[in-house]
Specification:
This protein has 460 residues and is mainly alpha-helical. It has 20 helices and 6 strands. The chain has helices at 16-22, 25-28, 32-48, 54-73, 85-97, 99-102, 110-145, 166-191, 210-216, 226-231, 234-261, 288-311, 325-349, 354-361, 368-377, 382-399, 408-414, 422-425, 428-433, 443-458, and strands spanning 151-156, 159-165, 193-194, 221-222, 268-269, 351-352.
């Protein structure tokens, strides 16, 4: 206990099991850069405000820089017996500077210190994740541009619905990812408030300059209430939520890749470097990456639920429950980065089986809507055209044929309006190419979507 920075009030040593239970350095040690960066800014502010001697402030900053360099180089290792990263850094500084090192914690509490560290850390992590999402969007756009004319089925209820292109399908995911980018940037903006100066909960009587510290650390502003400054973890929850939605998008994409890889679809084939085999079935080529992403999505959801449950019902201000924020949000971040980093090259190297996609599109009467639209354009009410087309589909099933192969006399038995031009109207290429409205599957429309997304991530 003699080595504990909070010793003094206690008359006996804390049980060793309690120390182990209480310790957080095993996971908050990853924030050592942010902790040291925050301490350097705090020391500079203390010196400029005359709260400590300017020369001691400079010594503290130099000492902190040397500690950072030594940790980065591996010269010193984080002490697993330290209570947390904050205690480790301060103890190391005191060992090097003596009483001068002890002045660092003036006008500061671990409560506002940890609130600062995690905000700095999460801002840095968002700045790493955003370029990864951008690279994934770029990969999607590149594949889409190569497949503007790759006709495939569009599905609803996992049933063949209408003809689209692979490019059109992929750009749906690009748009999802663009919303993920917006959410991450919005989250970062809201966490860009410096809590340092909130103290344990009631700020401090020292004449600190909170705005100076915030500016030194690159924050947009300071938190406006000291109670909220130390007890707010909304930004962790919001980030976990944004990451959960991102993982949900990756999971949906993964599920489609899993389906498309199957022999029942065979729309794509994954590169051998991004698939695995079976220990007993030599013919197998399993899409394990995408299956793992599906599974890890639930893991990130669990991290979000952990944070929400942890904060539920907590009175103001700081409570030790909040130490649980780090493992959950760190796990969510690590999982997302791992999944995106693996998904990008897997997607970039997959082979598209264009012929199989088109062959599947030729079945299932996915041009039935266009057949009905053909009649509407010739003057029939849509509901009448719908019923006629439905009857034609039933007739095709009875004759084991398709709308494209059904003889014109069969069409005319139901409606004299049909002429030879119906075959051009219901061809798959026409069905796709005539859907030129913004957002539609026509090549020129999809190219506009690609250009929009590329402009979007260029502005990131």
């Amino acid at each position: 206990m003699a080595n504990s920075l909070w010793a003094g009030r206690f008359s006996k040593e804390v049980d060793s099991k309690v120390n182990d239970f209480n310790s957080s350095i095993s996971f908050d040690g990853r924030m050592y850069r942010q902790d040291i960066k925050g301490s350097m800014a705090h020391a500079e502010m203390l010196g400029k405000q005359g709260i400590i001697d300017i020369h001691e402030s400079e010594k503290i900053i130099a000492g902190l820089k040397s500690i950072l360099e030594d940790i980065d180089s591996g010269k010193i290792m984080l002490d697993p017996n330290a209570e947390d990263i904050h205690m480790f850094v301060e103890q190391e500084l005191t060992n090097r500077l003596g009483d001068t090192g002890k002045r660092l914690h003036t006008a500061r509490s671990r409560n506002d210190q940890v609130a600062l560290d995690i905000r700095l850390y999460l801002k840095d992590e968002i700045d790493e994740i955003l370029p990864m999402v951008k690279e994934l969007m770029k990969t999607v756009c590149d594949i889409a541009e190569k497949n503007l004319d790759t006709v495939m089925c569009g599905y609803t209820h996992l049933q063949r619905a209408q003809p689209i292109t692979l490019a059109h399908h992929l750009m749906a995911y690009a748009n999802m990812l663009s919303r993920d980018v917006d959410r991450l940037k919005d989250t970062r903006k809201r966490m860009d408030r410096c809590p340092l100066g909130s103290g344990a909960l009631a700020s401090t009587t020292y004449p600190i300059d909170r705005k100076l510290t915030a500016d030194l650390l690159g924050f947009e502003d300071i938190t406006q209430n000291s109670l909220d400054g130390v007890s707010d973890r909304d930004f962790c929850i919001e980030l976990a939520s944004a990451l959960s939605i991102l993982m949900m998008h990756l999971s949906r994409f993964s599920e489609e890749i899993i389906l498309w890889c199957s022999w029942e679809f065979k729309f794509i084939e994954l590169d051998d470097a991004y698939a695995t085999g079976s220990s007993i079935m030599p013919q197998k080529k399993n899409p394990d990456i995408t299956e793992l992403i599906r599974g890890k999505t639930g893991r990130v959801y669990g991290d979000l639920n952990t944070l929400l449950t942890m904060m539920k019902g907590l009175p103001l201000a700081y409570n030790k429950d909040m130490q649980e924020d780090k493992e959950a949000i760190f796990d969510a971040i690590d999982t997302v980065k791992l999944c995106i980093g693996t998904f990008i090259p897997m997607l970039a190297t997959m082979r598209v089986n264009k012929e199989n996609m088109r062959a599947a599109a030729a079945k299932g009467f996915i041009n039935a809507t266009d057949c009905a639209d053909y009649l509407v354009k010739k003057g029939l009410p849509f509901r009448d055209a719908y019923k006629i087309t439905g009857t034609l589909v039933a007739r095709c099933i009875e004759l084991n044929t398709t709308l494209e192969a059904l003889p014109l006399e069969e069409y005319k038995k139901l409606c004299d309006t049909f002429e030879n031009d119906v075959y051009e109207a219901i061809s798959l290429d026409t069905c796709v190419n005539m859907r030129k409205v913004p957002g539609g599957p026509a090549p020129e429309s999809v190219m506009m979507q690609i250009e929009y997304i590329r402009a979007f991530f260029l502005d990131m």
